[in-house]
Design a protein that fits this description.
single chain, alpha+beta, Beta-Lactamase, Helix Hairpins, five-stranded antiparallel beta sheet, 50% helix, elongated
């Protein structure tokens, strides 16, 4: 490129012309001085250009005229275009990284040598892998689970690899490997803790139902074998066996009814219909049913000092009836049971208090689990199905109510169903007279 310096080149040109015309020393001196000035100016311009190229973002392009000015202008434009493109790429990369960090599954990219190249935030929670801290580390040294190294060497393995999180041992994760490009591999971790817990609950539930049905069926089957041999039993024995078979049949029917009820409650989010439930009338019915179940063995008292309750009467009757029947079953003869409905602050509270055997504190959080029993032998003797409190819990949830339990061994228990104020009718006058039996 031809570079023109407007202030220096005319001096050199004038000296050269003088030299050619007069062949004088002064002309050669002028020419030499002009060329020297050209070299100095060019050297300074190149130095300035090199400094600017090393750090073009530090300052604007130097102010130069002529060809140097055009060079700076074109390069500045090109650098601005490239800077904008780089900013856009970086913004997209940040957006992608943020999106991957928001994914609940753990994602880890490793190269052909199993070195960690990248990982999202969930990978840190699942596997304890965090970048840049673990960048370049061998993944087998970070996930120290027997069999993991062998699994990582099988990219076509269809089954997941199960591992417990090193950060939270209570969580379980399923790992899968996906080929990524020619050499890289994507490791995906999925939290399967809840799914495995549900599967365990399902297996336990099936086993419990099978056990609960097997016992009465075994009894009935054994008695039927005796009935087949007419000469082996007297009429009194036949009557006794028939009575026992009838009891076992009722027990199976009760279990099936509770299972159907619980299944329906779990499948529906809210009661099919609601109404204003007269609590004075409902407590009178609960008292009569309690008296029938107790057969005079307990002192039972019912007191209604609260307003009407909005809800599904059939479901509320079932929930409250389960609490009353449990109190009767687990209270020794001569004990006392108190059924109450009252206001406490802004809440409507239905409570059943008994003077029974009580429940140890470690059992209280699990009482509403299906088939959970504090004492299996005693529960079976009392005729319970093990589903009563599970039904109570689901009915109360459908009515936005809470179940609270207070109990001490040897001092009895109190079960309270607490309803929000919007389910109460505030202008309903309370009843004053308690109803008592026993």
């Amino acid at each position: 490129m031809r570079l023109v310096l407007t202030n220096v080149l005319p001096i050199a040109g004038l000296g050269l012309l003088t030299t050619l015309l007069h062949d004088s020393a002064w002309g050669w001196a002028t020419t030499t001085l002009g060329l020297l000035l050209v070299v100095i100016v060019q050297t300074r311009s190149l130095a300035s250009f090199a400094a600017w190229i090393d750090d073009p973002q530090r300052s604007d392009a130097p102010d130069h005229a002529g060809e140097w000015g055009e060079i700076y202008l074109k390069l500045s434009r090109r650098l601005r275009v490239e800077a904008r493109a780089r900013d856009e790429i970086e913004a997209r990369l940040r957006s992608f990284t943020d999106a991957m960090d928001a994914v609940p599954d753990g994602l880890v990219i490793v190269d052909g040598n199993h070195q960690v190249q990248w990982a999202n935030r969930a990978a840190g929670d699942h596997l304890g892998i965090r970048v840049p801290r673990d960048g370049g580390a061998i993944i087998e040294q970070l996930v120290r689970t027997p069999g993991f190294a062998e699994y990582l060497g099988k990219p076509g393995e269809p089954s997941p690899f199960i591992v417990q999180s090193p950060a939270a041992r209570a969580r379980t994760y399923a790992l899968r490997i996906v080929p990524l490009g020619q050499r890289n591999t994507l490791l995906v971790s999925l939290d399967v803790t809840d799914a495995r817990r549900v599967e365990t609950m399902r297996s336990t539930f099936v086993a419990n139902v099978s056990h609960e049905l097997r016992t009465p069926l075994t009894v009935v089957s054994g008695f039927l074998e005796h009935f087949a041999d007419e000469g082996s039993m007297s009429a009194e024995q036949r009557q006794q066996f028939a009575h026992l078979m009838s009891e076992q049949t009722r027990r199976m029917l009760s279990l099936v009814d509770d299972l159907l009820t619980l299944s329906r409650l779990e499948a529906e989010d809210a009661p099919a219909s609601e109404e204003e439930v007269d609590m004075d009338e409902l407590l009178a019915q609960l008292l009569a049913e309690g008296q029938s179940l107790s057969e005079g063995r307990h002192r039972i008292q019912a007191s209604c000092k609260g307003p009407a309750l909005r809800g599904n009467r059939k479901e509320l009757h079932s929930a409250f009836g389960n609490l009353v029947s449990n109190a009767i079953r687990y209270t020794p003869p001569g004990g006392e049971i108190r059924i109450k409905w009252k206001l406490r602050g802004e809440l409507g509270v239905f409570s059943v208090r008994d003077s029974g055997v009580g429940i140890a504190a470690e059992h209280l959080p699990r009482l509403t689990e299906r088939f959970y029993r504090v004492d299996r032998g005693r529960s079976r003797d009392t005729g319970g199905t093990g589903l009563g409190l599970a039904i109570v819990k689901h009915i109360l949830l459908r009515h936005q109510a809470n179940l609270a339990i207070d109990s001490r061994v040897g001092e009895g228990s109190t079960f309270r169903a607490e309803f929000p104020d919007w389910r109460l009718r505030p202008d309903d006058p309370p009843s004053d007279d308690p109803q008592t039996s026993g």
